[in-house]
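This part of the workshop introduces the protein records we will be handling. To make this concrete, we reproduce a full record directly below:
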Amino acid sequence: MTSSVAADPLPATPLEFQHEALELWVMRVADVDPAQLDPSVLDRNERLRAARLARPDDRLSYLAAHILLRQLVGAWLDLPPQNVAFLRELCPRCGAPHGRPALDSPSEPLHFSLSRSAGLVLIGIAPTPIGVDVEIVPPPETIAEVSELLHPIERKEILSAGSSRRAHVFTTIWARKEAYLKGIGIGITADLAADCLGAAEQATTLPGWTVISLPIAAGYAAAVAIAQAPNHNKGPAREHLRLQGTHDVILPNRRQR
């Protein structure tokens, strides 16, 4: 099934894949008219979390991302955005209810993931578990500090990159790693050195998972991790998970300034 967003959709751009069961959407928060944002479609927990955000830009980004998620998932399920019910799965490591966000009593197999960073929002929807991540390139001190926590092969890859590419290589590795850890439901509380994602190849296959770097706006890196279906003939095999293009996504300016 391919979704179509409900009336008055937020200005998101789809990323085209050669796999019809996977949807990826990217949105620039600067293109969102705040008048489009109706917090009443969110549940109580989402509204409370938005209210706790002190910075107006953070609050706007959160509202836009979570309303868009409800629009997209609601379109898949033929439900109004406010009728989509979410829950948290159990963490596979500790059993507490802070694992992957999921649908409450879904009518069909449907999984989703959301990420936002410095004004960009990335959402993935698929029939199997999925994780997405988008990251703005961080400052050099963050790269130096966090690189020490990564897999030895990843650390070597970052150090061997030229000074002009080191920040991009680090951010690509970080986005791929976080997408995978979100996909398996653990998140970045896990041992960051346990799995090697790397940045050298567009696609990396881990047991039961495929991780792909995504083209995204300049100054950012992004990735998607998607689980193989039990029947691999129907699942997102690596050779089918190829982007239609390899260049940065050109996000249209949706608002008149």
